[in-house]
Write a structure and sequence with these properties.
The structure is a single chain. With about 450 residues, this protein is an alpha+beta fold. The chain is about 35% helix and about 20% strand. The strands form 4 sheets. It has a 9-stranded mixed beta sheet. Strand 16 (about 405-410) and strand 17 form a beta hairpin. Helix 1 (about 15-35) runs antiparallel to helix 4 (about 145-160) and helix 4 packs parallel to helix 11 (about 250-270). The radius of gyration is 27 Å and the shape is elongated. It starts with 14 loop residues before the first helix and ends in a 6-residue tail after the last strand. The structure holds one RNA strand of 76 nucleotides.
RNA sequence: GUGGGUGUAGCUCAGCUGGUAGAGCACUGGGUUGUGGUCCCAGGUGUCGCGGGUUCAAGUCCCGUCACUCACCCCA
């Protein structure tokens, strides 16, 4: 059989990089729990009907099908299953299903794989991990959660800075601002305007103006006004006056400006410099109704957003009750792929092992196992040498894996342990010896980039 | 789905207008008879992505196909 080749878009990491990913996941989880979000996991599949509920066929859903199914489930979208393409839609279903058992407002975090059948690219995958936090209310959800959630995410991502993750900046807009502004201008097809303005960074203002006229039915003056607003961005509430200066009046615009100003001002107090109002942020998903968020890694803007989300009002509704929410989702795989791909972050070693017990002869293996068990009981990750090869080979075995210590039982029953990085070797008591704390487990550390 | 690029050793890649498989790193053994890294010596490194065609002769040229990759679209 030919050697298997990687499947595009289904990333698999080597152990050293997986250690980085696990560190990221641990850090996110710790932060989310500090903020009182409860853990939830939903099944990987949803009825196709659920997944396509918002007409999101563009998500390229993977279908699940039994080999022996013989078409028995073919037609009915309520029985057909698809792999979820995000965690928001399954969570909305979960909330409806368990509404009677949950307390509202309900705060949850959820870290799982999702699947999208899109063309893979740098930072874009077909199987990837998202880490979501959402707050949903029953019937209503106070606005202040729209202020709280970006702070949670900034805290979580900032906690990763100590291992070398670049700083982040959250760009925020409010659907009410956009919709009110366009409506006040007299533009009816708000969705078309949003979609077009969203392309500003890619195609430039001239093309956007042209598209606004051609596809959104805007006049020259209306298109100019849209662009003027999209150009506004500020780290404080100064954007409000600049929007007002454009002379558009609408009640929804007023409401949106008040909310957006609150998000910016409150965040500036907690985590200064990490969030800006950016009135060109649109986001394609049409269920957003209030604040919308996108997040870039500074210096890695080409990667796209690593954490996005927004306020939604009608995503979860059983017809009788609705559960408005606000949520943000970190693209863990995208983030980690950049951290390890550009060597910004690395693990200190690719194995957990702290100590390798050397073996003088195969007859000594039982004694070595016994020694290793003692070390493990005291929390020291230990393996016994795979063979009683020459000590040079056993040391090399440890060296290749980054195992920092080799343990040598002596013929007289005493013990020595060698730090193979320094070469220091000294007597050690198996019942008492401890490595320095920084050697106990693999550490995840910033890579010091050497200028070329 | 549309358009470009690339497929040669475990890895990174050379290989010219067709003429018999290459380098570095890694790996294995030895120099060093139980304490690694340096150095020296020796050695596997291979269906040249796959299939077909042209030719005396194809890694090289042509066609097809698959995979990977970049851009568009969209998004974490």
């Amino acid at each position: 059989m030919a050697r298997p080749r990687p499947l595009s878009g289904f990333p698999e990491l080597l152990p050293a990089d997986r250690i980085v990913e696990l560190h990221v996941l641990d850090t996110l989880r710790r932060t989310f729990e500090l903020w009182g979000f409860a853990p939830v996991e939903t099944r990987a599949v949803e009825p196709l009907e659920q997944l396509l509920r918002k007409g999101e066929i563009d998500k390229e859903v993977y279908l699940l099908r039994r080999l022996q199914a013989e078409g028995e489930e073919e037609g009915d979208p309520a029985r057909r299953l698809g792999l979820h393409f995000d965690l928001t839609v399954p969570f909305a279903r979960y909330v409806l299903e368990n509404a009677g058992k949950l307390q509202f407002p309900f705060r949850r975090y959820q870290i799982q794989k999702v699947w999208r059948g899109e063309r893979p690219q740098d930072g874009r995958f077909r199987e990837f991990v998202q880490a979501d936090v959402d707050v949903v209310g029953a019937g209503e959800l106070p606005f202040h959660h729209e202020v709280e959630l970006p702070i949670v995410m900034i805290e979580a991502l900032t906690a990763l800075a100590e291992v070398g993750t670049p700083p982040v900046r959250v760009h925020v807009n409010n659907r009410k601002v956009a919709e009110g502004f366009y409506a006040g201008l007299g533009l009816a097809d708000v969705a078309a305007v949003l979609r077009t303005v969203d392309k500003l960074d890619k195609v430039g203002p001239d093309v956007v103006a042209e598209l606004l006229r051609d596809e959104a039915g805007a006049s020259r003056a209306q298109a100019e006004a849209c662009l003027a607003m999209a150009r506004i961005s500020a780290p404080d509430a100064s954007f409000v006056d600049r929007v007002r200066a454009l002379g558009v009046e609408h009640p929804l615009l007023d409401a949106g400006l008040v909310e957006l100003a609150r998000v910016v001002e409150a965040t500036a107090e907690h985590v200064p410099g990490a969030l800006v109002a950016d009135l060109k942020i649109a986001r394609g998903l049409d269920y957003y109704t209030g604040t919308v968020y996108e997040t870039v890694l500074l210096g890695h803007e080409d990667l796209g957003s690593i954490c996005s989300g927004g306020r939604y009002d009608a995503l979860a509704s059983d017809g009788k009750d609705t559960y408005p929410g606000v949520g943000l989702s970190i693209g863990v795989t995208r983030l980690v792929s950049r951290l390890v791909g550009r060597r910004l972050v690395a693990a200190s070693r690719p194995v957990p092992t702290c100590v390798l017990v050397a073996l003088t002869a195969e007859e000594d293996r039982a004694a070595a196992d016994c020694l290793a068990t003692g070390l493990r009981r005291r929390g020291i990750a230990t393996e016994v040498s795979p063979s009683a090869a020459k000590f040079g080979r056993q040391i090399r075995y440890a060296d290749r894996r980054g195992i920092p210590y080799v343990w040598f039982p002596q013929a007289d029953g005493t013990h020595q342990v060698k730090d193979i990085r320094s070469g220091d070797q000294k007597d050690a008591d198996p019942a008492a010896w401890l490595p320095p704390a920084e050697d106990l487990r693999p550490r995840v550390v910033p890579v010091v980039s050497s200028p070329a």
